[in-house]
Amino acid sequence: MTETSSPAVLCLASASPRRRELLASIGVVAEVKPVDIDETPLAEESPEAYVVRLAREKASAGGRLTRLPTLGSDTAVVCEGRILGKPTDRTEAAEMLHLLSGRAHQVLTAVAVTGPAGLLDVCVTTRVQMRRIEEREVAAYWATGEPVDKAGGYAIQGLAAIFIERIEGSHSAVVGLPLYETAQLLGRQGVRLWNGAV
Ligand SMILES: Cc1cn([C@H]2C[C@H](O)[C@@H](COP(=O)(O)OP(=O)(O)OP(=O)(O)O)O2)c(=O)[nH]c1=O
């Protein structure tokens, strides 16, 4: 199944190339409609409530632009009680890596899908253990350009894989979309996958 030969079965309310690629990897052709929402956490909001709220807001906003079921998602890295988003500069990226170095953290990814069953959501938590990261590696990693658009300032699917000792949970969720749970949600919204099951 290729994107040029098959019609879209889903609207993806996301600017993340990773999310589009992950969906394509399980044969889901999506039409991409990025939405812009305020990502400021609310006072006293838990990390899980935060990512679920953003995923739902993205799906709802995208869903207003199409008749297709629409998926929104949000990923946050949580370490020592702090929510780490995408670093805005070299200093912030270095602070994030220093915090993550030699520690375990959680990656929370929420997915929400609009459709005939209403607005459904799921949140997946994955534990990631990083080895200690040397100061020279922090500088060299920033220079690669990889940290910029990634929550927590690293990409498990990229060069930062050499920092990851182990994970417990969903690898695809860390990259941006938990594929198992996403397939379950799509099924509940009547989106037919390659196996024909709905
Ligand atoms: C931790 C981690 C995050 N990421 C990415 C996934 C997400 O694209 C990004 C988290 O930012 P998000 O705000 O969840 O998503 P986004 O801004 O890229 O896209 P949109 O809001 O339009 O859907 O970080 C990786 O690619 N690899 C990783 O290992």
Automatic annotation (TrEMBL):
Entry-linked NCBIfam families: maf
Keyword flag Transcription regulation: no
Subcellular location: Cytoplasm
Function as written in the Swiss-Prot or TrEMBL entry: Nucleoside triphosphate pyrophosphatase that hydrolyzes dTTP and UTP. May have a dual role in cell division arrest and in preventing the incorporation of modified nucleotides into cellular nucleic acids.
Cofactor: a divalent metal cation
Key words, A-Z: Cytoplasm, Hydrolase, Nucleotide metabolism
EC number: 3.6.1.9
Domain of life: Bacteria
Pfam annotation, one family: Maf
HAMAP family: Maf
Family annotation (Gene3D superfamilies): 3.90.950.10
InterPro entries tied to this protein: ITPase-like_fam (IPR029001), Maf-like (IPR003697)
Record: active site: 74
Species of provenance: Billgrantia antri
Listed name of the protein: dTTP/UTP pyrophosphatase
Family membership noted in the UniProt record: Belongs to the Maf family. YhdE subfamily.
Keyword Transport: no
Site, as annotated: Important for substrate specificity: 18, 75, 157
